[in-house]
Design goal:
There is one protein chain. The chain is 55% helix and 10% strand. It is built from 8 helices and 7 strands; from the N terminus they run αβββββαβααααβαα. The radius of gyration is 17 Å and the shape is globular. The termini are far apart.
Length: 216
């Protein structure tokens, strides 16, 4: 529980700095008997009770490793899903892929480049589960086969975010990302608006790039 608290504190501070101030006066992390590893709600997240066993091995990883990545991931949802909403049925990548990338930002801030890079290898590992098929990340949830959703949305999705940062240049990408958050605060963002703002920020044509990753 003390580890979970510290991870939550570090995550909120990291995202406050990178995106914008956490909007509430309280944030709760609750250990919960559940099948999922974590679930986000406004101002509160549920974390699987199994992750709190320091000796457990879950999905082939020590529980301590998963506890940190899951709490950081679910905390990032306070900014994307909560403050900036999206159509989670038809455009699930717009919060899950973004939040996966923000978890990388957390590791970079808190533990440094080596740990962040190690975390990012999990994205490729997920995508490798379906042999890195070039399935678009911008499809609706129902468009994916059961074994495709997690590898594409949680694996290929953040790889797109990483590739976009390289394509735009990190400084330009960071500016765009914060502006996207500010423009859609307490509203709904879409893929089209995401692309339009990215292009206007870098003053470049990203239509082919987005087509290769997002669109069918």
């Amino acid at each position: 529980a003390e580890s979970a608290l510290q991870i939550g504190i570090d995550a909120v501070q990291s995202f406050n700095s990178y995106i914008g101030q956490y909007p509430y006066t309280e944030y709760d992390i609750v250990s919960t008997p559940m099948l999922a590893k974590g679930m986000e709600y406004p101002g509160i997240v549920a974390i699987s009770l199994a992750l709190y066993d320091p000796e457990a091995v879950i999905s082939g990883l020590p529980s301590r490793v998963l506890l940190e990545s899951v709490i950081a991931h679910e905390t990032a949802h306070q900014w994307f899903y909560n403050v900036v909403g999206n159509d989670q049925i038809d455009e699930p990548w717009l919060d899950e892929a973004i939040v996966q990338y923000l978890t990388f930002v957390y590791y970079l801030d808190v533990h440094g480049a080596r740990s962040a890079t190690e975390y990012a290898t999990s994205w490729q590992g997920l995508w490798d589960q379906i042999e890195s098929q070039d399935i678009p990340i911008g499809l609706s949830s129902s468009s994916y086969a059961p074994d495709e959703y997690t590898p594409i949305i949680y694996g290929r999705g953040p790889l797109f975010m990483e590739a976009l940062a390289k394509e735009m240049g990190q400084d330009s990408f960071d500016t765009f990302f914060r502006e996207y958050y500010t423009l859609h605060k307490w509203g709904i963002g879409t893929t089209e608006e995401f692309l339009e703002l990215a292009e206007s920020t870098c003053k470049c044509d990203l239509s082919k790039f987005f087509g290769e990753w997002i669109y069918a």
